[in-house]
Design brief:
Two copies of one chain form a homodimer. By secondary structure, the first copy, chain A, is of the alpha/beta class. Chain A has one domain: Aldolase class I (TIM Barrel, Alpha-Beta Barrel). In chain A, 48% of the residues lie in helices and 12% in strands. Chain A has 13 helices and eight strands. Chain A has an eight-stranded parallel beta barrel, surrounded by eight helices. In chain A, strand 7, helix 8 and strand 8 form a beta-alpha-beta unit. The longest helix of chain A has 15 residues. Chain A starts with 5 loop residues before the first strand and ends in a 7-residue tail after the last helix. The interface between A and B is medium-sized, with 35 and 35 residues.
Chain lengths: 300, 300
């Protein structure tokens, strides 16, 4: 599963008021990730507003991304939907277009049982043939994966990896060790929660699923590279330099902040899908000020 | 706002594996509600699996329902969607077809702020012209309406009512009194949570938004009628007789139980949209046994 290790960078999906993807702006974002040689691109994650885009727009976004990347790195793409049949169709689309894997969250309206989530994931894996990454994101889905459910899912053919949320940084090491024991060898274990990711990579996680890397890939690659060569001090030094950004991620949500960053960096002036509102001007000024406080090697 | 008082009965929306509504079965359910002379029909609520059905199917379900009811009672219809523009379109459809009001929940994937929910609701009310019922359902949306937000929303033109969740029955009276003070006169205050609804109606709530009434309207009408004429003892007697059903609602979720009831009553053999699974056979046997324990005037 070498394609799911290292830095997986999750860009925003710029779109207009009607939910039509701005493919010119998207390609500009993807080109930056490609130039920074991230290990994989995570298209249409929560940061990529996948739940707000139609099947057709998700297909367009993926096709343009794959064309821009031209095989230089694998693309993991969000295939989540409320209905199982819809998630199957999205995964089939992704497989047909050439995605390397599908990221599947336990999205729900009616709260789901463990058995329902198990069936949902196995059905999508089986009926699409697309390798599936279990996307554990309680902050948006409100579903909690138990260790027992993760272990059951990891044994299903075609389910190849997990993207875990992080809680406290000092809990990651034991979480990782426990999960390693519960899943087959070769199953890729990764984490999101950018502010804890340096610790996760130092602890030996396979993958950092990163929101910041979608807009600032180079500084995130530096953390991953330092952790890989065992230089925990350097990984922590860069992580600490990014603290002002982590603070903003926690205060305003990383999604809203990276939209503001895309505007500040003059990449695009995309708006989030309503009902999500743009950050107010004072928050944007706070973000601009935080950028100025970053050391120069962290702000590009 | 007389059309939003008394019993609002929420039927299931029978549909096939592909999410196509079974209009014959739906009309059979609606005819029962019409015969029982419920005060309104709540189509495409959470029980009506609105979030799992396409715009086209939601339009079909509403058109068939309005045709079956033929003006005998108002229809409130779920118009919720993740995107504001989609909710506007659903509300415009509902208005064009002749629904009396739209039920709008704060559905989200990305957690929403109070301002975002306020804009979402005001935009749908303004751009559709459909009277809007605020649907506060933290169990599915995980959004919590504060009293301050309810008060702001109640002052928006076209937002006419609220469907509150219930917590403990002994907290309803003070909740109702507090909310009355915070909203304009004539704003309709109702409750869901069937097992607490008798107390809500005794306390003077305008409306009971009822899942059970979607399948057993007559016994629910008896509770509402008793509460209306001030006979709290009789309302409580019938409510207590339904305790075995309330227990099942809490154990298996009311949605899953009413699907089993529709099958037991031979109304239809609809399946819930996957990933939601049918209840296992032992649970269905438990439901059948509970029905037999109900007094005869409560089981029809």
């Amino acid at each position: 599963m070498a394609f799911l290790s290292g830095l997986s960078a999750f860009p925003i999906t710029p779109s207009n008021h009607d939910g039509r993807v701005d493919t010119v702006a998207l390609r500009r974002l993807i080109a930056r990730l490609s130039a920074a040689q991230v290990d994989s691109v995570g298209l249409l994650g929560s940061t990529g507003t996948y739940m707000y885009l139609s099947r057709e727009e998700r297909r367009r976004a993926l096709a343009e991304t794959l064309d821009e990347i031209a095989g230089r790195m694998p693309v993991v793409v969000g295939v989540g939907a409320l209905r199982t049949d819809e998630a199957v169709r999205l995964a089939q689309d992704a497989k047909a277009l050439g995605a390397a894997a599908g990221l599947l969250a336990a999205t729900s309206y009616t709260p789901l049982t463990d058995d329902e989530v198990f069936e949902h994931f196995s059905t999508v894996a089986r009926e699409s043939g697309l390798p599936i990454v279990v996307y554990d994101n309680p902050g948006t889905t409100h579903f909690r994966f138990t260790p027992a459910l993760v272990s059951r899912l990891a044994k299903v053919g075609g389910i190849i990896a997990i993207k875990n949320p992080t809680d406290k940084p000092d809990a990651i090491k034991s979480h990782l060790a426990d999960q390693r024991r519960a899943v087959p060898e070769g199953f890729s274990i990764g984490y999101s929660g950018d502010w804890n990711a340096a610790e996760a990579m130092i602890a030996g996680a396979d993958t950092w699923y990163s929101v910041l890397a979608g807009i600032l890939p180079e500084v995130c690659m530096k953390i991953v590279t330092a952790a890989r060569r065992g230089d925990a001090a350097e990984a922590r030094r860069i992580d600490a330099a990014l603290a002002p950004l982590w603070g903003l991620f926690k205060e305003f949500s990383n999604l809203r902040v990276v939209y503001a960053l895309a505007e500040l960096f003059d990449i695009c002036r995309a708006e989030l899908p309503r009902p999500i509102l743009p950050l107010p001007a004072p928050a944007k000024r706070q973000i601009a000020a935080a950028l100025e406080r970053l050391p120069s090697d962290a702000s590009r």
